[in-house]
Amino acid sequence: MSEPYEVNFDGLIGPTHNYGGLSDGNLASSNNAGEVSRPQEAALQGLEKMRTLYKAGLKQGFLPPLMRPNMTFLKRAGFTGSQEDMIKAAANEAPSLLKTAYSASSMWAANAATVSPSADTQDGKLHLTPANLSTMLHRSLEHPDTFRNLQTIFADMGQFAVHEALPEHSNFSDEGAANHVRLCADHGAEGVEVFVYGREASEDTAGFPTRQTRLASERIAAMHGLKPERTVYIRQSRQAIDAGAFHNDVVSVGSLNTLFTHELAFEDKAAAYDAIAKAGEGLFDLNVVEVPDAEVPLKDAIKSYLFNSQLVKMPGEDRLVLIAPTETEETESTRLFCEAMTKSNGPIGRVHYVDVRQSMRNGGGPACLRLRVVLTEEQLRGVNHAFLLDDQKINALQDWVRAHYRETLSAADFADPALALEISNGHLALQKLINDFGAQVN
Fold first, then answer.
1. DSSP reduced 3-state for 353
2. Is 405 part of any domain?
3. Is 175 a catalytic residue?
């Protein structure tokens, strides 16, 4: 029996990638609001990151960008007439709503869903629940289309269960895998699922928004049929949230039995580590790599996105590899920590830096761009292979990006209805390309 695979499904960065500054609490998003973005460069950077992991021997998939502008949203917001009429009216009357309709935030696939592998679930199926992303208006629009995409990719109902998102209410605020960590001895073994939340359902908090509630995490665990004794709920520290850690994956990441975390990530770190270790008894010995605030101040960790990195087990390597953004290398404290960490005999043996600067400037590092899905060999065969990548498909997607993406984009461009038509034509070409990918398999 072959070893199950951890497959990374990256969000393909869409043609409307822009710096809208729509995400309160995301410092990079706020700091770069209104600047001119480079959509073509952003998508090519994302695809090259996917190629890096594919060529290293990992399985790599992609999630297509959602259609933007979201005309259904504009219609529900009271705009009428043709697409051209609605875009022009929104540009004149409510430009912030037009920016919302054009948001490309679905690129951050770590927020697409929470995933529980079949080894953890009581019915033996792989479960996926799209995040409702209800805290931010622009992101709350994503989950209906994400649900349909996941149903297309994971269509075999005998092996996969794709749930609808939780109710769109603040009590059920859910941000997906960005606040979820799975720890295990190996990917195919039963593991411990750790849900990190910022507040209780009805709790009011000051400062930056707390985007995950404990209630949301509990209901997802119940829907997925997780064993209570193998499920842990940990509160994110208020200090981390107010420093700009709008998701837990900005200050903590885990893989196999290793939790790589900042000292200030959790409200009660000792209790958190103890709870995970207890839940993992008989399955694995927890290995915590804690980064002291004295060596890497919280602000440096968030600026560099040290923890918003992919922590992966590469084929043929005994120790884990951290796929980190180039900003981590360029920030002195994080570079020095990584150098010392990899020289030690700890579980993380190498750091590989990747350029995702366009995403980083909007507040998303390598980990934000991917959704991890553990699949058995049989489940991998059941996945829609049009969405699993190889060099040829990556090349084809890059050619599509070069043909249909603008080199630069600003908020002023949204007022031109020609942009929407241009993007629509690009999406039609992408759908044809995906159909061709599927035909190659069959």
1. strand
2. yes
3. yes
Active site residue 368: yes
- Calpha distance 34→20 (Å, rounded): 6
Residue of 127, 187, 327, 368 marked catalytic = 368
Residue 83 lies in a domain: no
Place of tokens 């103890």: 274
User: Residue 108: is it exposed, middle or buried by C-beta count within 10 angstroms (0-12/13-18/19+)?
Assistant: buried
- 3-class DSSP state of 197: strand
Range of the domain at 374: 5-68+103-441
Q: Are 179 and 195 in contact (CB under 8 A)?
A: yes
Contact 12, 45 (CB under 8 A): no
Angstrom distance (rounded) from CA 17 to CA 37:
7
CB 2 within 8 A of CB 381: no
- pTM tops 0.90: yes
pLDDT tens-place string over residues 328-353: 999 999 999 999 999 999 999 999 99
Judged by DSSP in three states, 438 sits in helix
Distance CA(146)–CA(149), nearest Å, equals 5
Which one from 6, 41, 142, 175 is the annotated catalytic residue?
175
The tally of domains found in the chain comes to 1
Tokens of 350: 């190498």
Task: Give the helix/strand (H/E) hosting 335.
Answer: helix 332-343
Cα–Cα distance, 410 to 287 (Å, whole number): 45
The predicted-structure confidence for 375-407, as pLDDT tens digits, reads as follows: 999 999 999 999 999 999 999 999 999 999 999
Question: Letter for the amino acid at 120?
Answer: D
User: pLDDT tens for residues 109-121?
Assistant: 999 999 999 999 9
Q: Does residue 86 form part of some domain?
A: no
Euclidean distance between CA atoms 43 and 41, whole angstroms = 6
Which member of 127, 138, 143, 247 is catalytic? 247
Q: What percent of the chain has pLDDT over 70?
A: 96
What count of other Cβ atoms lies within 10 Å of the Cβ of residue 308? Answer: 31
Q: Confirm whether 339 is domain-assigned.
A: yes
- CA 376-185-188 angle, to 5 degrees, is 5
Q: How far apart are CA 333 and CA 232, in angstroms?
A: 31
Chain center to CA of 231: 21
CATH label of the domain that carries residue 312: 3.75.10.20
With beta carbons less than 8 A apart as the criterion, state whether 79 and 101 touch: no
Token pair recorded at residue 58: 């990992």
